[in-house]
Amino acid sequence: MRIGELARRAGVSTRALRYYEQQGLLPARRSSNGYRDYDEADLKLVSEIRSLLTVGFTLEDARPFVDCLRAGNEAGNACPESVEVYRRKLAEIDEQIRTLLGRRAEVASQLADACPRCAIRTGATT
Amino acid sequence: MRIGELARRAGVSTRALRYYEQQGLLPARRSSNGYRDYDEADLKLVSEIRSLLTVGFTLEDARPFVDCLRAGNEAGNACPESVEVYRRKLAEIDEQIRTLLGRRAEVASQLADACPRCAIRTGATT
DNA sequence: GTAACCCTTGACATCAACGTCAATGTCAAG
DNA sequence: CTTGACATTGACGTTGATGTCAAGGGTTAC
User: Fold this and answer.
1) Would you call A68 an interface residue with chain B, using a CB distance cutoff of 8 Å?
2) Taking Cα atoms as reference points, which of B54, B116, B41, B18 lies closest to residue A106?
3) Residues of chain B with pLDDT under 50
4) Domain tally for chain A?
5) A120 close contact with B: CB closer than 8 A
6) Which residues of B touch A56 (CB under 8 A)?
7) Cβ of residue A27 near strand C, that is under 7 Å?
8) Does the CB of A14 sit below 7 A from strand C?
Protein backbone atom coordinates (compact mmCIF):
# COMPACT_ATOMS: atom_id res chain seq x y z
CA MET A 1 0.00 0.00 0.00
CA ARG A 2 1.06 3.60 -0.46
CA ILE A 3 1.65 6.18 2.22
CA GLY A 4 -1.82 7.68 2.08
CA GLU A 5 -3.54 4.39 2.76
CA LEU A 6 -1.17 3.48 5.58
CA ALA A 7 -1.73 6.88 7.11
CA ARG A 8 -5.48 6.49 6.94
CA ARG A 9 -5.43 3.00 8.33
CA ALA A 10 -3.05 3.87 11.14
CA GLY A 11 -4.76 7.14 11.93
CA VAL A 12 -1.66 9.28 11.49
CA SER A 13 -0.55 11.90 8.97
CA THR A 14 1.67 11.13 6.02
CA ARG A 15 4.03 13.68 7.46
CA ALA A 16 4.37 11.61 10.59
CA LEU A 17 5.13 8.47 8.57
CA ARG A 18 7.85 10.24 6.62
CA TYR A 19 9.24 11.52 9.88
CA TYR A 20 9.36 8.00 11.34
CA GLU A 21 11.22 6.89 8.24
CA GLN A 22 13.66 9.75 8.58
CA GLN A 23 14.27 8.69 12.18
CA GLY A 24 15.01 5.19 11.00
CA LEU A 25 11.93 3.66 12.60
CA LEU A 26 10.00 2.89 9.45
CA PRO A 27 12.17 2.14 6.42
CA ALA A 28 10.10 1.92 3.26
CA ARG A 29 10.48 -0.09 0.11
CA ARG A 30 9.97 1.93 -3.05
CA SER A 31 7.85 1.23 -6.08
CA SER A 32 9.35 1.75 -9.52
CA ASN A 33 7.88 5.22 -9.60
CA GLY A 34 9.57 6.18 -6.34
CA TYR A 35 6.46 5.92 -4.19
CA ARG A 36 6.84 4.38 -0.74
CA ASP A 37 5.40 0.90 -0.56
CA TYR A 38 4.18 -0.53 2.74
CA ASP A 39 2.70 -3.83 3.88
CA GLU A 40 0.72 -5.12 6.85
CA ALA A 41 3.84 -5.50 8.97
CA ASP A 42 4.44 -1.79 8.55
CA LEU A 43 0.94 -1.06 9.77
CA LYS A 44 1.74 -3.08 12.86
CA LEU A 45 4.93 -1.07 13.35
CA VAL A 46 3.09 2.21 13.12
CA SER A 47 0.42 0.99 15.52
CA GLU A 48 3.12 0.04 17.99
CA ILE A 49 4.75 3.44 17.68
CA ARG A 50 1.42 5.19 18.14
CA SER A 51 0.43 3.29 21.25
CA LEU A 52 3.82 3.99 22.78
CA LEU A 53 3.64 7.68 21.95
CA THR A 54 0.23 7.95 23.58
CA VAL A 55 1.61 6.72 26.89
CA GLY A 56 4.32 9.36 26.76
CA PHE A 57 7.19 7.51 25.11
CA THR A 58 9.44 9.41 22.71
CA LEU A 59 10.34 7.98 19.33
CA GLU A 60 13.73 7.08 20.77
CA ASP A 61 12.00 5.14 23.51
CA ALA A 62 9.98 3.35 20.86
CA ARG A 63 12.99 2.25 18.85
CA PRO A 64 13.74 -0.97 20.74
CA PHE A 65 10.12 -2.05 20.31
CA VAL A 66 10.25 -1.37 16.61
CA ASP A 67 13.57 -3.16 16.26
CA CYS A 68 12.10 -6.06 18.19
CA LEU A 69 9.15 -6.32 15.85
CA ARG A 70 11.35 -6.05 12.80
CA ALA A 71 13.54 -8.81 14.17
CA GLY A 72 10.58 -11.10 13.67
CA ASN A 73 9.03 -11.10 17.10
CA GLU A 74 5.28 -11.13 17.31
CA ALA A 75 5.28 -8.42 19.97
CA GLY A 76 7.46 -5.35 20.25
CA ASN A 77 7.94 -5.91 23.96
CA ALA A 78 9.27 -9.44 23.53
CA CYS A 79 12.87 -8.26 23.76
CA PRO A 80 14.89 -7.43 26.87
CA GLU A 81 15.73 -3.97 25.51
CA SER A 82 12.03 -3.17 25.34
CA VAL A 83 11.48 -4.42 28.87
CA GLU A 84 14.32 -2.24 30.04
CA VAL A 85 12.65 0.79 28.43
CA TYR A 86 9.40 -0.11 30.19
CA ARG A 87 11.20 -0.13 33.50
CA ARG A 88 12.93 3.15 32.82
CA LYS A 89 9.74 4.85 31.69
CA LEU A 90 7.91 3.54 34.71
CA ALA A 91 10.54 5.15 36.91
CA GLU A 92 10.28 8.39 34.94
CA ILE A 93 6.52 8.42 35.27
CA ASP A 94 6.75 7.78 38.99
CA GLU A 95 9.20 10.64 39.31
CA GLN A 96 6.88 12.93 37.38
CA ILE A 97 3.97 11.94 39.56
CA ARG A 98 6.00 12.72 42.66
CA THR A 99 6.93 16.09 41.23
CA LEU A 100 3.34 16.89 40.40
CA LEU A 101 2.12 15.82 43.82
CA GLY A 102 4.68 18.13 45.39
CA ARG A 103 3.58 20.99 43.18
CA ARG A 104 -0.05 20.27 43.89
CA ALA A 105 0.58 20.48 47.61
CA GLU A 106 2.52 23.70 47.22
CA VAL A 107 -0.09 25.37 45.06
CA ALA A 108 -2.93 24.19 47.30
CA SER A 109 -1.06 25.59 50.27
CA GLN A 110 -0.56 28.92 48.55
CA LEU A 111 -4.19 29.01 47.55
CA ALA A 112 -5.22 28.35 51.14
CA ASP A 113 -3.00 31.20 52.25
CA ALA A 114 -4.38 33.60 49.69
CA CYS A 115 -8.01 32.64 50.08
CA PRO A 116 -8.72 30.55 53.18
CA ARG A 117 -12.31 29.86 52.21
CA CYS A 118 -11.20 28.42 48.86
CA ALA A 119 -9.41 25.51 50.49
CA ILE A 120 -12.48 23.92 52.02
CA ARG A 121 -13.19 21.49 49.21
CA THR A 122 -9.57 20.72 48.36
CA GLY A 123 -9.17 17.40 50.13
CA ALA A 124 -5.41 17.14 50.63
CA THR A 125 -4.18 18.73 53.83
CA THR A 126 -0.46 18.26 53.42
CA MET B 1 21.13 48.05 41.03
CA ARG B 2 22.13 46.87 37.58
CA ILE B 3 21.05 43.72 35.81
CA GLY B 4 24.07 41.67 36.83
CA GLU B 5 23.49 42.25 40.51
CA LEU B 6 19.78 41.53 40.29
CA ALA B 7 20.52 38.35 38.40
CA ARG B 8 23.01 37.21 41.01
CA ARG B 9 20.72 38.05 43.90
CA ALA B 10 17.70 36.41 42.32
CA GLY B 11 19.62 33.40 41.09
CA VAL B 12 18.67 33.82 37.44
CA SER B 13 20.51 34.75 34.26
CA THR B 14 20.58 38.25 32.84
CA ARG B 15 19.08 36.72 29.73
CA ALA B 16 16.07 35.61 31.74
CA LEU B 17 15.61 39.09 33.20
CA ARG B 18 15.69 40.68 29.76
CA TYR B 19 13.20 38.09 28.60
CA TYR B 20 10.85 38.90 31.47
CA GLU B 21 11.09 42.55 30.51
CA GLN B 22 10.36 41.74 26.90
CA GLN B 23 7.28 39.85 28.05
CA GLY B 24 6.13 42.89 29.98
CA LEU B 25 6.62 41.30 33.38
CA LEU B 26 9.60 43.30 34.53
CA PRO B 27 9.74 46.84 33.13
CA ALA B 28 13.05 48.49 33.95
CA ARG B 29 14.00 52.08 34.56
CA ARG B 30 17.10 53.16 32.70
CA SER B 31 20.15 55.00 33.91
CA SER B 32 21.49 57.88 31.85
CA ASN B 33 23.89 55.49 30.15
CA GLY B 34 21.10 53.21 29.06
CA TYR B 35 21.74 50.52 31.65
CA ARG B 36 18.71 48.93 33.29
CA ASP B 37 18.23 50.09 36.86
CA TYR B 38 16.41 47.89 39.38
CA ASP B 39 15.40 48.21 43.02
CA GLU B 40 14.37 45.89 45.84
CA ALA B 41 10.79 45.73 44.61
CA ASP B 42 12.08 44.31 41.35
CA LEU B 43 13.96 41.64 43.25
CA LYS B 44 10.70 40.72 44.89
CA LEU B 45 9.02 40.52 41.49
CA VAL B 46 11.68 38.22 40.13
CA SER B 47 11.50 36.03 43.22
CA GLU B 48 7.76 35.73 42.75
CA ILE B 49 8.17 34.80 39.10
CA ARG B 50 10.81 32.22 39.96
CA SER B 51 8.79 30.51 42.64
CA LEU B 52 5.82 30.32 40.32
CA LEU B 53 7.90 28.92 37.49
CA THR B 54 9.28 26.22 39.76
CA VAL B 55 5.80 24.91 40.48
CA GLY B 56 5.09 24.68 36.77
CA PHE B 57 3.47 28.02 36.02
CA THR B 58 4.16 29.68 32.70
CA LEU B 59 5.13 33.34 32.52
CA GLU B 60 1.58 34.07 31.38
CA ASP B 61 0.29 32.36 34.49
CA ALA B 62 2.62 34.51 36.56
CA ARG B 63 1.43 37.78 35.07
CA PRO B 64 -1.49 38.37 37.43
CA PHE B 65 0.79 37.85 40.41
CA VAL B 66 3.29 40.32 39.06
CA ASP B 67 0.57 42.84 38.27
CA CYS B 68 -0.77 42.35 41.77
CA LEU B 69 2.59 43.08 43.34
CA ARG B 70 3.13 46.08 41.11
CA ALA B 71 -0.28 47.38 42.12
CA GLY B 72 1.14 47.82 45.59
CA ASN B 73 0.05 44.63 47.28
CA GLU B 74 2.43 43.02 49.69
CA ALA B 75 1.80 39.57 48.19
CA GLY B 76 1.36 38.61 44.57
CA ASN B 77 -1.51 36.31 45.46
CA ALA B 78 -3.51 39.04 47.21
CA CYS B 79 -5.62 39.64 44.11
CA PRO B 80 -8.62 37.66 42.88
CA GLU B 81 -7.00 37.16 39.47
CA SER B 82 -4.09 35.41 41.13
CA VAL B 83 -6.41 33.21 43.13
CA GLU B 84 -8.22 32.29 39.97
CA VAL B 85 -4.92 31.23 38.41
CA TYR B 86 -4.18 29.12 41.46
CA ARG B 87 -7.47 27.34 41.04
CA ARG B 88 -6.95 26.79 37.36
CA LYS B 89 -3.44 25.49 37.81
CA LEU B 90 -4.58 23.20 40.56
CA ALA B 91 -7.11 21.72 38.18
CA GLU B 92 -4.45 21.39 35.48
CA ILE B 93 -2.10 19.64 37.86
CA ASP B 94 -4.83 17.27 38.95
CA GLU B 95 -5.56 16.46 35.34
CA GLN B 96 -1.89 15.83 34.66
CA ILE B 97 -1.67 13.56 37.66
CA ARG B 98 -4.67 11.61 36.46
CA THR B 99 -3.10 11.27 33.02
CA LEU B 100 0.17 10.07 34.48
CA LEU B 101 -1.54 7.58 36.76
CA GLY B 102 -3.34 6.17 33.75
CA ARG B 103 -0.11 5.90 31.82
CA ARG B 104 1.62 4.33 34.76
CA ALA B 105 -1.03 1.67 34.99
CA GLU B 106 -0.85 1.01 31.28
CA VAL B 107 2.92 0.74 31.20
CA ALA B 108 2.98 -1.42 34.32
CA SER B 109 0.42 -3.69 32.72
CA GLN B 110 2.45 -3.96 29.53
CA LEU B 111 5.56 -4.64 31.54
CA ALA B 112 3.79 -7.40 33.44
CA ASP B 113 2.71 -8.90 30.12
CA ALA B 114 6.19 -8.77 28.66
CA CYS B 115 8.03 -9.96 31.70
CA PRO B 116 5.77 -11.49 34.36
CA ARG B 117 8.55 -11.78 36.90
CA CYS B 118 9.36 -8.07 36.60
CA ALA B 119 6.01 -7.03 38.01
CA ILE B 120 6.51 -8.52 41.44
CA ARG B 121 7.81 -5.41 43.13
CA THR B 122 5.53 -2.95 41.32
CA GLY B 123 2.86 -2.41 43.95
CA ALA B 124 -0.08 -1.20 41.91
CA THR B 125 -2.26 -4.00 40.58
CA THR B 126 -4.67 -1.96 38.49
C1' DG C 1 -5.50 16.51 -22.83
C1' DT C 2 -6.90 17.78 -18.72
C1' DA C 3 -8.94 17.42 -14.28
C1' DA C 4 -8.43 15.33 -9.91
C1' DC C 5 -5.76 12.91 -6.92
C1' DC C 6 -1.91 10.83 -5.40
C1' DC C 7 3.03 11.04 -4.59
C1' DT C 8 8.00 13.27 -4.10
C1' DT C 9 11.64 16.29 -1.59
C1' DG C 10 12.80 20.44 0.83
C1' DA C 11 12.36 23.69 4.02
C1' DC C 12 10.35 26.90 7.25
C1' DA C 13 6.87 27.27 11.42
C1' DT C 14 5.21 25.85 16.00
C1' DC C 15 5.69 26.15 21.59
C1' DA C 16 8.51 28.18 26.09
C1' DA C 17 11.97 29.94 28.27
C1' DC C 18 15.68 30.85 27.79
C1' DG C 19 21.35 29.79 26.04
C1' DT C 20 24.78 31.58 23.43
C1' DC C 21 27.02 34.38 20.16
C1' DA C 22 28.31 38.72 17.87
C1' DA C 23 29.34 43.39 17.62
C1' DT C 24 29.53 47.29 20.21
C1' DG C 25 29.20 50.79 24.14
C1' DT C 26 30.36 52.32 29.28
C1' DC C 27 33.12 53.00 33.07
C1' DA C 28 36.47 52.49 36.97
C1' DA C 29 41.18 51.24 38.01
C1' DG C 30 45.94 50.94 37.09
C1' DC D 1 45.53 54.64 27.55
C1' DT D 2 44.43 50.25 28.01
C1' DT D 3 42.61 46.37 30.31
C1' DG D 4 38.67 44.15 32.08
C1' DA D 5 34.32 43.80 33.90
C1' DC D 6 30.14 45.24 33.01
C1' DA D 7 26.26 46.76 29.86
C1' DT D 8 23.46 47.13 25.23
C1' DT D 9 20.59 45.11 21.12
C1' DG D 10 19.85 41.59 17.79
C1' DA D 11 19.44 37.26 16.21
C1' DC D 12 19.93 32.37 15.76
C1' DG D 13 19.82 27.71 18.41
C1' DT D 14 17.54 24.34 21.51
C1' DT D 15 13.72 20.27 22.04
C1' DG D 16 10.07 16.80 19.67
C1' DA D 17 6.87 15.62 16.70
C1' DT D 18 4.82 17.09 13.60
C1' DG D 19 1.90 21.13 10.43
C1' DT D 20 2.07 23.43 6.40
C1' DC D 21 3.46 25.22 2.16
C1' DA D 22 6.01 25.16 -2.29
C1' DA D 23 7.10 23.25 -6.61
C1' DG D 24 6.99 19.56 -9.06
C1' DG D 25 6.10 14.46 -11.06
C1' DG D 26 2.86 10.15 -11.57
C1' DT D 27 -1.52 7.88 -12.48
C1' DT D 28 -6.25 7.27 -13.60
C1' DA D 29 -10.62 8.57 -15.52
C1' DC D 30 -13.13 10.96 -18.65
Assistant:
1) no
2) B54
3) none
4) 1
5) no
6) 100, 103
7) no
8) yes
3 state DSSP class of A29: strand
Contact A107 B94 (CB under 8 A): no
Asked if residue A49 lies in contact with residue A59, where contact means CB atoms within 8 angstroms, the answer is yes
Residues B95/B96/B100/B103 CA torsion (nearest 10 deg): 70
**For residue A15, what is the domain's CATH number?**
1.10.1660.10
DSSP string, A85-111: HHHHHHHHHHHHHHHHHHHHHHHHHHH
The string of pLDDT tens digits covering residues B62-92 is: 999 999 999 999 999 999 999 999 999 999 9
* pLDDT beyond 90 at A118: no
Contact B97 A101 (CB under 8 A): yes
Structural domain contains residue B80: yes
* ipTM confidence score: 0.85
- Residues of chain B contacting A94 with CB distance shorter than 8 Å: 104
Residue A110 has pLDDT above 80, yes or no: yes
pTM: 0.88
Asked if the structure places residue A126 within a domain, the reply is no
Is the pLDDT at A51 greater than 90, yes or no?
A: yes
**Is residue A126's pLDDT more than 70?**
no
Residue B43: give the domain boundaries.
3-121
Residue B111 lies in a domain: yes
Does some domain include residue B126? no
CB atoms near residue B94 (< 10 Å): 14
